[in-house]
Amino acid sequence: MTGLLKILIPLGFLDVSMGRTFVFHYKGRREDKIEELRRFGQEYKMNFEGDYEKGIFYGGPRILGMDFYFEGRYQVQGRKVTLEVVEKPPLVLWEWLEGEMRRFIEG
User: Fold this and answer.
1) Nearest Cα residue to 98 out of 28, 40, 24, 3
2) pLDDT in tens, 29-82
3) 5 in a domain, yes or no?
4) Alpha-carbon distance values, 20 to 25, 27, 56, 73 (Å)
5) 70 φ, ψ to 5°?
6) What is the Cα–Cα distance from 86 to 83, expressed in whole angstroms?
7) Could you tell me the pLDDT band of residue 95, with boundaries at 50, 70 and 90?
8) Most buried residue among 18, 37, 94, 98 by CB atoms closer than 10 A?
9) DSSP 19
C-alpha cells in the first residue's frame, strides 16, 4: 500500500512540517490593518479572537470538499506583526503562505 500512496500523492508535494513564526512590518494605522484582517477572515471563514495587540486565529475555507484549516497566534508591537502558524493544511506550502501573508500585511 505504501507504494500506491507514493504514486497517488508524491511525498514532496505534501508539507507536513511543524508550525512556523513569521515577522512582518505593516504600514498605516494598526486598527485599520486588524479590521482588514478580520474582513479577510470572514471571507475565508476564519475566526479571530483578541484585540489590536494579540490574539488567535483559526478556521478556513472548504474547497472542493476539503477543509483548509489554519490555526495560530498573532502579536502586534509597534509596526511589527508576529504571526505564529501552528497548523495549516499539508497541501499549502510554507513558502506560498509566507508570501501571501507578507503581501497582505506589508502590501
Assistant:
1) 24
2) 888 887 887 788 888 899 989 988 999 999 999 888 888 999 999 999 999 999
3) no
4) 17, 23, 15, 11
5) -125, 150
6) 9
7) very high
8) 37
9) -
SS3 (DSSP) at 15: coil
Q: Taking the CA atoms of the chain, what radius of gyration do you get in angstroms?
A: 16
- Hunting for cell 509597534 — which residue is that? 78
- Phi, psi for 16 (deg, rounded to 5): -110, 25
Instruction: Identify whether 6 is part of a domain.
Output: no
pLDDT at position 4, please?
37
In 1-107, the DSSP E strands lie at: 20-25, 46-50, 54-59, 62-63, 66-67, 70-77, 80-87
- Indicate whether 14 belongs to any domain: no
- In a domain, residue 57? The reply is yes
The domain spanning residue 89 has which CATH number? Answer: 3.30.310.80
Length of the chain: 107
Task: Indicate the number of domains in the chain.
Answer: 1
